[in-house]
Amino acid sequence: MHITEAKQLFEQNELSKALEMLDVLISEDASDFRSLLLRGRIYYKMQKWGDAMNDYSSVLEIDPENQEAESGLAMAKSILGYFTPDMFNP
Q: Angle at the Cα of 12 (from 34 to 1), degrees rounded to 5?
């Protein structure tokens, strides 16, 4: 089992199969930010905003400069109508 297979399933819109595979990969290595990022994208596509935000946040803990995770998190927050003043006043 490898992230490449999960990406192929994602591209084929086999989201639940890709999620199952990613859950296993992440359970084996919680610091695998590529798997977390892909799972965040899948959750986002499934409109599971909270789950997507959790995965994007986890990616940013591992890789604080990850642009895709930053933008995904920002988009999910805006969809949910979140406003975080801490983002503007660190």
A: 45
Fold of 3-81: 1.25.40
Q: Which tens digit of pLDDT belongs to each residue from 6-60?
A: 999 999 999 999 999 999 999 999 999 999 999 999 999 999 999 999 999 999 9
Whole-angstrom Cα distance, residue 88 to residue 76? 17
Can you give the residue ranges of every domain in the chain?
Answer: 3-81
CA 52 to chain centre: 5
Give 63-72 pLDDT, tens digit per residue: 999 999 999 9
Rounded CA-CA distance 80/84 in Å is 12
Return the closest-CA partner of residue 52 out of 43, 61, 64: 43
Note the pTM of the prediction, 2 decimals: 0.86
Look at the chain and count its residues: 90
Max Cα–Cα distance, the chain, nearest Å? 43
